[in-house]
Amino acid sequence: MNALRLIPGWGYAAVTRWFVGGAVAALLAADLAVTSLHPWADLQRLLGGLIHPDLRSVEVWSVVYTIAFAILGVTLGAGAGFVLAIPFAQSRSVRLLCAGLRSVHELFWALLLMQVFGLSATTGILAIALPYAGICAKVYSEIIEEADLSALRVLPEGTGALSAFAYGRLPDVAVAFRHYTLYRFECAMRSTLVLGFIGLPTMGFYLESAFRQGRYAEAGALLLVFYALIGSRRLWMRLSTLPVLLVASVLALPKTIGTTNWLASLRRFVSHDIVPSPLRSGALLDPETWARMGAWFRPILTQQILPGAFQTLVLAQVALVATAIGALLLFPLVSRRFAGSIGQPFGRVLLVVVRSTPEYMLAYVLLQLLGPSMLPAILALTIHNAGIVGYLMGRHADGLPYRVDAPSGLDLYAYETVPRLYGQFLAYLLYRWELILRESAIFGILGVATLGFYVDAAISELRLDVAVMLIVATALLTAVVDALSRALRRSLRLAELPTRLSEPVNGVSAGPLRPVCS
């Protein structure tokens, strides 16, 4: 295949070799030890819990809170994203703000917000709304830019910018906005589940407790209920039911545990807690203050940021290449051409379940089975992301026009299908790179020595200034990888491919490389 490229020597094969070589080198630094004494026995007990779930043990209010946090978080985030999307393309400041919001994981937002609002509904809702505002602003802006401009040409002269948008563009983008926003509720459900692992009263709180205490029948019931919620989302989450769900979600919110004087807590948080300790008492223009600042920051950089960033990159690089291998192996399961009319539905159900399971929860479960190392995190990222990419590839494989005399079996796979999908496949992997890195950072909360490990330690010790510095470093690392990913996609001219590897939502394509929730 002749790869289209802007940088001489960089084609599909070259990019693939560099990423595989990086993953092989990363493996040398990765901790892949299995320290559990009886991993297979633990796995059997977990599977037994899924086969014989204890549905009566499910806390109904945890299900209600999971749905309520997701609905209110997405509503608030999408509303803010819509407002930010209008000036997004013209304002560099807005783009930087949105990039900062979406580059910080929901768990990190929640850990910070807990210092202000305690274990409250506000913490859960804002932890979802803040990053989703940045994500939705970017996506909505892309939808607006791709919309048909013919309606704008017939507007009267002197029409204001707001009126032009409302009457000339909004009618064309409203359907895409609606489908994408409704799809984000599935992403929010996964995010809300994960927030329970740090104490918020969602299903994740009870799931973590059940796994930790070995109550696998209860854990299996919670998982099955969660999958049922995800699978039935299109039945109960509709534009017509949204007003009722919004009102019910507000009425069902749990009580606050912890601080109630959030205004005083916010003032202290902004003016004192997150300000680097050398700057709290010293004069900003005093050279001695900045000398103390350098002495304070140096060990954070050398002992936490640099080693944490290295381990985060190692984990992400191995997981990215493992995801690629897994997706190439899995996509025939959801393609009628390979799995047949009988096998295809089973393959689709399998991959939908896999991609609906949050990586953090998978990593937590695998950590119980395999013991503390980088291996559970790598497997969790691989399973989840390979399910997403494999599902998309399988659907696009069915849409390819094959020759009448096309081969079958392995020859069809290796010589007809994979080469024709490889550009889209590579483009999507490059997009997932940033998301995998973002998830790799938070696995530190589970004990893996990524940046999240140091963030969690700093928050536990109430060194919030250090925690914020580490979170900023994580956001910058994510932004750098995102910029490199976009540069590689541009250099390969992947946006010019005749078929885009995109995620249709409710039968309507959300556009090329539209973000699928992480």
Question: Explain this structure to me?
Answer:
- There is one protein chain.
- The protein is an all-alpha fold and 518 residues long.
- Helix content is 73%, strand content 1%.
- The protein has 21 helices and two strands.
- The protein has helices at residues 12-29, 39-51, 60-88, 92-103, 106-117, 121-146, 150-153, 161-195, 203-212, 216-231, 233-236, 242-251, 262-273, 277-281, 287-330, 336-356, 359-370, 375-398, 409-442, 451-460, 464-491, and strands at residues 504-505, 508-509.
- Strands 1-2 form a two-stranded antiparallel sheet.
- The longest helix is centred in the middle third of the chain and has 44 residues, at 287-330.
Written as H for each helix and E for each strand, in order along the chain, the element string is: HHHHHHHHHHHHHHHHHHHHHEE
Oligomer: single chain
**Which descriptor suits the 3D outline?**
globular
Q: So how many helices?
A: 21
- The helix content, as a percent range, equals over 70%
Mean pLDDT: 84
Quickly describe the structure.
73% of the residues lie in helices and 1% in strands.
Helix and strand arrangement:
Elements: H1 12-29, H2 39-51, H3 60-88, H4 92-103, H5 106-117, H6 121-146, H7 150-153, H8 161-195, H9 203-212, H10 216-231, H11 233-236, H12 242-251, H13 262-273, H14 277-281, H15 287-330, H16 336-356, H17 359-370, H18 375-398, H19 409-442, H20 451-460, H21 464-491, E1 504-505, E2 508-509
Antiparallel strand pairs: 1-2
